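Objective 1.3, modelling of assemblies. Example input:
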Amino acid sequence: MKICITSQGLTLDALVEERFGRAPFFIIIDSGTGSFTAIENQFAKGAGGVGPKAAQVLIAQDVKVLISGQVGGNAREVLAAAGIAMYTYRSGGTVKDAFDQFTKNMLEQST
Amino acid sequence: MKLAIASGKGGTGKTMVAVNLAFTLSKTEEVTLVDCDVEEPNLHLFFPAPAITTEVTVPVPVVTETTCDHCGRCEEVCQYGAMTVLRNRVLLFPELCHSCGGCTLVCPNGAIHEEPKRIGTTTISTPLPNLKLVSGMLDTGNPHAVPIIRAAKTLAASDPLIICDTAPGTSCPVVETLEGCDACILVTESTPFGLHDLRLAVDVAARLDVPIGIVINRSDGKDQATLEFCTDHDLDVMMIIPFDREIAAIQSRGDLLCRVRPEWQAAFTALFYKCQALAGVQR
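Predicted structure (tokens):
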């Protein structure tokens, strides 16, 4: 299963970005193998409508879970319709920290 | 002639200049005053009169799900994130749509058509015998001011003398209002903020090729920095209005300086002559 964590950098040691649509990077971790890829969010500096556009990227990547600080209304609607579960992480740690907390079932799911 | 009153910084006195200019000129000629500050129109407060209201709509896409095969072409072409195509349905966000029509054009199945969506209104009234007032009003919660401004300007388009009161700032609503104007008055105040935003407004008007004249409002006599800026940029300071409690009180109760203090009419007439000169219009 693919899990996306919004990130300020390209590695698992980068800090989690709390915004979804304007996150600089999406780190996508395969929970089965533990391998990951980093995708630059080309909509991060867009004028508007970045939430749904960023959500479209996750759908294309076949992501099933999103971990981020805050997801806006439009993006939330797209993600929910696409069946992507959203979890909230706002502890200010790294991508790895967020992933560990998710695997330990310590993160709260948001609807 | 089409004249815009703009400012950059908010609260410098655009409306004060616009209503007094229109009031004074209407004594001798036909004037159309257009409230292009559609997010917060207020000219009607100075000129209350019965008005005719018309809805403003923009076309937004509607998808016929039975004809749609969810190919995703509309999502690709939409630059505003207004459409997301899932495996079995299309999600629409009409408030993100800019009504470009791209999705309707690229759909290979003819599954998208456009329907009108209300975003606000325009009103027309005749508060004084020679004064026509057109106001654009954006509905609360709607983000697109530009189509309302366009509709309001269209209602005045064939009138001989048009004065447009512009929104503050330098973004799309201001650009839309300035576009096609023969001259603009930038109203400023001699504060650091006033000068900072005046620079931005001058830049916008210059890029749109609209001749600029300056009005300094609420002058405390310490206008040196603003005057220097105007000299450096070859901008005519056409009028200086003093910082005066009585003027503020008149404006705040929705009255007109030129009605309460008719001696001000000469100054606003002179301002208009300078605008005509700026626009290259013969008297």
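The first helix of chain A runs from residue 50 to 60.
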